[in-house]
Amino acid sequence: MARKFTTNSRLVNELFASYSNTFLALCELINNSIQAGAKHMYIDIDYSEEEIFSSRIINSLSIKDDGCGVHIDEIEYKLLDIGTTNKSGGKGVGRFGAFQLGKSVMIHTIGYSKEKEQYSEAIIPLDVSVFEKNINVTEIPINTQEKVLDGKKHQTFYKVTITDFYDDSVYETEKRKKVSEKL
Q1: Cys staple from 161: which of 66, 99, 101, 106, with CB 3.0 to 4.6 Å?
Q2: Structure pTM?
Q3: What's the rounded Cα separation, in Å, for the pair 71 and 86?
């Protein structure tokens, strides 16, 4: 009888927090931009206001690059296939390093397909809570927004926005998720 390996979301969630600190997780996201051929990278950090009492220092962090982006025909292979090796030397989990920083990740990308000679745009919301349910990862629904763009030339990009940063209660049990002073 032929059978397949599967993995549960608990194991995947542990892989997402595999960097020794949040600074290294951020460095991995920057490295992904470099590997995508980006010539420019923009990092935007929205800090919490000092007057507002909060254990979270950062409200959101986004990294946007002008690399090749991901066309909608490549989303499953390049973004949703965990552990894929579509880049030389890659492990296929780097994009999920964002979950070491915060619970919610939004990927927004415009990519180009040479075969179809078309641009597409995709917005992919991801939330760590779906990986904490200890279910088979193939059963996790991902509700993407996708569209083919009109025929004119568009600027390709890839943007990761991280929100809902972890608070002090998480740091006590998962020290790797504490925002590094280097960050």
Answers
A1: 106
A2: 0.84
A3: 14
Nearest alpha carbon to residue 31 among 47, 48, 19, 45: 19
Q: CB neighbours (10 Å) of residue 50?
A: 7
Q: How far apart are CA 126 and CA 7, in angstroms?
A: 18
Of the candidates 145, 110, 107, the residue with the CA atom closest to the CA atom of residue 126: 107
φ/ψ bin of 176: left (φ > 0), alpha (ψ from -120 to 50), beta (otherwise): alpha
What's the CA angle centered on 74, arms 64 and 76, to 5 degrees? 100
Residues recorded for the chain: 183
| C-alpha to C-alpha distance for 138 and 155, rounded to whole angstroms | 32
| CA separation for the pair 57, 59 (Å, rounded) | 7
Q: How many Å apart are CA 177 and CA 171, to the nearest integer?
A: 6
| Residues in contact with 82: Cβ distance below 8 Å, sequence separation at least 6, in sequence order | 12, 15, 92, 93, 96, 137
Say how far residue 158 (Cα) sits from the centre of its chain. Answer: 10
Tens-digit pLDDT profile for the chain (183 aa)? 554 556 666 666 666 667 778 888 888 889 888 888 899 999 999 988 766 655 677 889 999 999 999 999 999 888 887 766 655 555 556 677 888 888 999 999 999 999 999 999 999 998 888 877 767 777 778 889 999 999 789 999 999 999 998 877 776 777 666 776 666
Return d(Cα 179, Cα 173) in angstroms, integer.
Answer: 14
